[in-house]
Amino acid sequence: MGKWAWFAWIVAVVAMAGSLVFSEVMKFVPCSLCWYQRIAMYPLVLILGIGVFYEDKRARLYALPLAFIGWLIALYHIIEQNIPAASQFSVCTSGVPCSAKYINWLGFISIPVLSFTAFTLIIVGLLLARRSAK
């Protein structure tokens, strides 16, 4: 699968580890949208890991739709955090509100922004892996 697939897998591993640090070490309680993003990210570690290890080009076919779904969820989460009018359509009706910002690095980097960035890098890595395989 090549170096870009390795890149995508490493990004997925780091993103999964980061989410576990936020919840298990720093004790941040994930909201519903955070859980959905995790549901999209965690299998990518396994799918891309197996694909890279066995050099299976078909892993991209399974990973790309999952990464795109996670990307869309992260984008919606960013919108909900930063545009107050979007909160009226929130999926977080109980527990931690999806608009809560546990971190705010440099004034704009929140957990959904980190997730969005990871999904973007994975998608780009997978598309570049496909291109370099041709």
Automatic annotation (TrEMBL):
InterPro entries: DiS_bond_form_DsbB/BdbC, Disulphide_bond_form_BdbC, DsbB-like_sf. One of its GO terms (biological process) is protein folding. GO terms for molecular function: protein-disulfide reductase activity. GO terms for cellular component: plasma membrane. Keywords: Cell membrane, Chaperone, Disulfide bond, Electron transport, Membrane, Oxidoreductase, Redox-active center, Transmembrane, Transmembrane helix, Transport. It is found in: Cell membrane; Membrane. Its main location: membrane. Gene3D superfamilies: DsbB-like (1.20.1550.10). Required for disulfide bond formation in some proteins. Belongs to the DsbB family. BdbC subfamily. This is Probable disulfide formation protein. It comes from Aureibacillus halotolerans. The gene is bdbC.
